[in-house]
Amino acid sequence: MAPRPPWITSLSQAFVAFTIEFDNEAEHQLPHTTTDYGRTPGAVHTPWLASMAMWFNCLQYVGEQGIALHEMRRRARTETNLDGMQRWGYVYLTPDPADQRRKPPKADWLVRSTPAGRLAQKIWQPLLPVIEARWQERFGASQIQGLRGSLVALVRQLDPALPDCLPIGGYGLFSSDPRPKPLRKAARKSPPPAPGENLDVAALPLPVLMARVLHACAVEFEQESSVSLALSANILRVLDERPTRLRDLPELTGISTALTAVGTGWLARHGFAVLDTAPAPDRGRQIRLSEKGLVAQESYITRLRELDRSWRQRFGAKTIGALSTVLAPIVRDGTPEKSPLFRGLVPYPEGWRAQVRPPATLPHYPLVTHRGGYPDGS
After folding, report:
1. Cβ neighbours of residue 138 under 8 Å, at least 6 residues apart?
2. S-S: 373 plus which of 53, 127, 140, 263, CB 3.0-4.6 Å?
3. Angle, alpha carbons 318-222-336 (nearest 5°)
4. Rounded to an integer, what distance in angstroms lies between the CA atom of residue 204 and that of residue 378?
5. Kind of pairing, strands 273-277 and 38-39?
């Protein structure tokens, strides 16, 4: 039998699968526009299609009367791609008519939803329990209840200030502090709230529980790593000192071609890898790890083991063991041949994922970017 993948990998792949299934259903119901695959015929309001992350870090907080930008950031506990959400047609910014100041700061302006944004809200909000119910039917109610229970036990011990989604990755796809800058400054003046204070952890949606655990893992991993967990777990992991063609990386990693280019470029610029032209008869570019990259790759493996050991000591070996055990039959090896997750990833015929090559694996850690928040960097 193949060795069981690390529980952080399995949890990452479960999170990616849940998000893709959510996104596929949202795309099926929401009139929309895509860059490469056109727009919904006959629809009036067609926002540019975005992923579940944009619900969690923005649209869920925008009520009928709008919300002050600073308050939306406070509630989300992370940043959104506000320029994108405006450009894509979901929200717009406007001064608060009740604010009599001559030039109120942008942070006090109101974020309001457009007609397309309000339609997206009606579609996205009820989808979370719908997808979770599908998972109960597919994997068994007791299995998903076990997954939820093990995550709840872990999240109750984590920082309650963690956001409900994975933050948009920064330069090098590093995970940020879970709180926006104003909240980080405030946290220096007063102690953080006790874990679980004013937070009904048991009521959190399944992807929120998964995201909180994964983000806490990434923040801790990156405190002593020169490469982000997202890049380490995906691109750095599959490379070695022998050249690999860039065009092969999406299939090896499960991440998009665009994010492959971003990630390999970052690794090369920082001396972890060497990019050059593939010799004939191959075409295109290839990449190999430098000595520095090989050390970073070994460090990734070591840090993952250390993180697992540390979490078992701090949060309980029984808690981490239960999570690992319950994930195993759900995820298996994360490939289409063996992972039950792929049964829920078949896109609708008109969906954009039906027009591209299906993934050969799922990412070993989600890559959420400003490009719409998709968990595989699409």
Report:
1. 340, 343, 344
2. 53
3. 65
4. 26
5. unpaired
Q: How far apart are CA 367 and CA 168, in angstroms?
A: 8
What's the predicted TM-score (pTM) here?
0.93
* Three-state secondary-structure class, residue 104: coil
Q: What is the token pair recorded at 312?
A: 């078992």
What backbone torsions phi and psi does residue 324 show, to the nearest 5 degrees?
-60, -45
Cβ 53 vs Cβ 168: under 8 Å: yes
Closest-CA residue to 117 (of 52, 30, 43, 40):
30
- Across 194-323, the runs of DSSP E, i.e. the strands, are 244-245, 273-277, 285-289
In the numeric block, the tokens 């022998």 are attached to 242
Q: pLDDT per position in the chain (378 positions), as tens?
A: 456 789 999 999 999 999 999 999 999 999 999 988 888 888 888 999 999 999 999 999 998 899 999 999 999 999 999 999 999 999 999 999 998 898 999 999 999 999 999 999 999 999 999 999 999 999 999 999 999 999 999 999 999 999 999 999 999 999 965 444 554 454 444 444 444 457 899 999 999 999 999 999 999 999 999 999 999 999 999 999 999 999 999 999 999 999 999 999 999 999 999 999 988 887 889 999 999 999 999 999 999 999 999 999 999 999 999 999 999 999 999 999 999 999 999 999 999 999 999 999 999 999 999 999 999 999
DSSP letters, 46-75, are -PBP--THHHHTTGGG--TT-EEHHHHHHH
Q: For residue 376, what is the DSSP state? A: B
Sequential DSSP letters for 92-124? EEE--TT---SS--GGGSEEEE-HHHHHHHHHH
Nearest-Å Rg of the Cα atoms of the chain is 21
**DSSP 3-state of 285:** strand
CB 83 within 8 A of CB 106: no
The secondary structure of residue 235, as a DSSP letter, is I
